[in-house]
Amino acid sequence: MTFHARLACVVLPWFLVACAGGAAVKSARPGWAIAIHGGAGVLSRNTPPDQVREFEAALEQALRLGVERLQAGAAALDVCEAVVRVLEDDPHFNAGKGAVFNEKGEHELDASIMEGHTRRCGAVAGVRTVKNPITLARAVMEQTRHVLLMGDGAEQFATSVGVERVPNSHFDTEHRRQVLDEVLLERARTGMVDGPQQRQNAYGTVGCVVRDGDGRLAAATSTGGMTAKRFGRVGDTPVIGAGNYADDTVAISCTGTGEQFIRHVVAHAIAARMAFGGQTLAAASRALVFDVLQPGDGGLIAVDRDGNLAAPFNSEGMYRGLADSTGTFVVRIFED
Ligand code: ASP
Fold first, then answer.
1. From the CA of 308, how far away is ligand 1's center (Å)?
2. Nearest to 70 by CA among 215, 259, 260
3. pLDDT band at 320 (very low <50, low <70, confident <90, very high)
């Protein structure tokens, strides 16, 4: 065999693998990493242990699904969507089934998804009849030339691409109804429309960030928003760069008072600190959560191109799970 033929034998397979795996990935360190969250709420520390255990079991189930997919070689984007669908279908969380009620006693759902190395992204806002908003967000990304669709237009698009629709009452749960009643009562008593009570009861947004075995990053976030929110209010979740973001450096999913995450463009600010300021993931994400945001605003999960994970929060707790190919597998609600 000539020298050039030998060279082709060595280089060609590498080239083909690089193309198949998304050639834009620069960091080729082996291994995968995943983080999920189920909101930065304030499930009280006095909550009965069996109820706490229920939440942990729900998180564990979703995290395990993500781990299995990653072990099987799935792409970051597919894992993010699959995991967020599981969390949307779980009534424990404020996304899909179990979403909070707005001030009119209805559900308006927001979601977004982003793939890091291509910067492709899709989002939906204020959808009322889409069973899994994250899947619709992905359809916006893949089947339109747009990034964000809202309301009726998003729902008509769902029908046109075969994304499942359900009546708005599908998302109802007794617990969320009770919380709405409490908030409305408190409002009537205090006359405060946007009081602290609203934040306190708004836990449960869900998200997932992944660095897959080929080094690709993705982030996905889905929410019912904030309890008793104004009709038509849209939070940070479908705003790319605020509540959800991924590029070649990092993938981030946020949870908390959406307006604050929008004002400070939190997810993109972390990516910018890392890319332009040379900060580590830990430093950049802690700076946003502890120096830029206010105590009680919420938290986020993030994974960087090397598979480092972060999950800082400034609320009393954040439902979260972290796993990676070195054997990490943890599910937590409060501080350690
Ligand atoms: N960030 C979400 C929103 O403001 C709510 C949450 O994460 O709890 O819509």
1. 25
2. 215
3. very high
